[in-house]
Amino acid sequence: MKIVSRNEELLRDALSRIPQSSSRTSLSSSNKLIRFEDISAAAFKIQCGVQKTPCMYSRLSKQYGMDIYLKKEFLQYTGSVKERGVLYLLTSLPQDQQRKGVIVASDSNFSMAVAYHASELRIPVFVIMSTSTSPARVKMCREYGAMVISYGTTAKDSQTHARRLAQENAYLYLEEEDSAVYLSGLGTVGLEVYEQVPKLDAVIFPAGGHCGLLAGSAAALKHLNPRISVIGVESESFPVLQQSLKAGHPIEDQACSNHHFYGDVSGLCFGSNSLQLTGKLVDKVVAVREEDILISMLRLLEYERATVDAEGAIGLAALVAGKLPELKGKRVAIVICSGNLELHLLQQCIARAVTLDNRVCRFSLVLSDSPGDISKLLEILAREEARVLDIKQEHTFVTSELFTVEVTCTVETRDKIHTAQLRNALLERYPTAAWTER
Fold first, then answer.
1. Which terminal residue of the chain has fewer beta carbons within 10 Å of its beta carbon, N or C?
2. Which Gene3D superfamilies does this chain map to (predicted)?
């Protein structure tokens, strides 16, 4: 039975203005109406291949003054929500193409999802990665079952090589785009959130250039309840979606970062389907600073034991930054969509986040060169319940009077208030103490 609603008319109107030409060489971008039935069909077809992830009440609710529910898509097998769209895309391929195989060229979450699900479906899968790709990513992709080929020093080299191999061997070259099939698969997140959290007021999604999750889920949510606010969040450093919406077309010349910290948050706007749906159905798009994303990662790690990347943390970052005051007292779901952050980068992010959160501070002061003075300093720190992370003494280059030592301490505190209390206590005893501002 066909389901027709006012929201379906909005979808038809949004897609009617999409240009029919496309530069994509992998799959022809299908600009047909994305109907609620399409998303429901996708949910049925992929239900045995992806996790129905929990959407749980968060302990962060009290801190931000609203009922927060976290949709934990980072619990998917490859750590990313992209599995939903990829699995539906692969199962929708003709059988002869499934026998021939598919090929991708990147180390993104999309490629990881293709590697895993194509292998599970017994579709031959090849992944072309540049020689600069981290060994951990290469290893993981091989463990998923893909044939990984290292080629070229840049992503563009890998893509060119993948296209050539696709032509020569009849593989289907896949790259992330906003075909109706892919968007329908991603839109199943919206269905699940609506089912799992009754009486929702708003749902927050990551945005950026790759806004397929936002667009597809908005289509589902607005069909089910037009009063639910759908909000997208992107980085202030790369406001790709906001600029594309303002221009009325995807921005192709936007300078983007190659830093793995940002992932798809900083990607180019990849299609008109997603852009038109976002412009028509999404209520608000906000941008947040890198500092807010880092603190959001820290909050999720501490309160939820969730290790996520920038794309996964950016939704919560909008609340950390105070960008959505209208949601106070409301029931809000946040999609935590990705948890693929390399270990060395995770360590840097958390170290930086605790400093930004005013929980690590550093100060220097000059003491007489005797064990007694150092002991007194440590007694003050113990009394103020500050944990010493590092302490260094400098004798040689001290410019003050003889037989003195410059002591530099790095300490951990509970929060900003505790840091202020410690600073006052030290200045009372050591008026010349110098604090290193972050």
1. N
2. 3.40.50.1100
Amino acid at residue number 215: A
Strand partners, 205: 232
pLDDT at 154 over 70: yes
Q: What is the DSSP string of 300-367?
A: HHHHH-----HHHHHHHHHHHTT--GGGTTSEEEEEE-B----HHHHHHHHHHHHHHTT-EEEEEEEE
**pLDDT tens-digit series, residues 292-307:** 999 999 999 999 999 9
For residue 143 the two structure tokens come to 């463990």
Work out the angle between the directed axes of helices 180-196 and 212-224 (0-180°, nearest 10). Answer: 50
Distances (CA, A) of 264 to 173, 210, 241, 274, 338: 19, 6, 12, 14, 10
Q: What whole-number distance in Å separates Cα of residue 409 and Cα of residue 281?
A: 52
Amino acid at 305: R
Reference 118, options 139, 142, 98; nearest CA is 98
For 55-87, the pLDDT digits (tens) are 999 999 999 999 999 999 999 999 999 999 999
Topology classification of domain 359-436: Alpha-Beta Plaits (3.30.70)
Q: What is the domain class of 36-80+180-353 according to CATH?
A: alpha beta
Domain 36-80+180-353 and domain 86-174, same fold? Reply is: yes
Q: Can you give the length of the chain in residues?
A: 438
> Closest Cα to residue 315, out of 333, 340, 301?
333
Q: Measured over all CA atoms, what is the biggest interatomic distance in the chain, rounded to whole angstroms?
A: 91
* Residue 153 CB burial class (10 angstroms; 0-12, 13-18, ≥19): exposed
At residue 225, the 3 state secondary structure works out as: coil
The verdict on domain 86-174 having CATH code 3.40.50.1100 is yes
Would you kindly state where each structural domain of the chain is located, as residue ranges?
36-80+180-353, 86-174, 359-436
Distance CA 275, CA 256 (A): 18
Confidence of residue 13 (pLDDT cuts 50, 70, 90): very low
| DSSP code string of 9-31 | HHHHHHHTTS-S----SSSPPP-
**Tokens of residue 243, six digits:** 């600029």
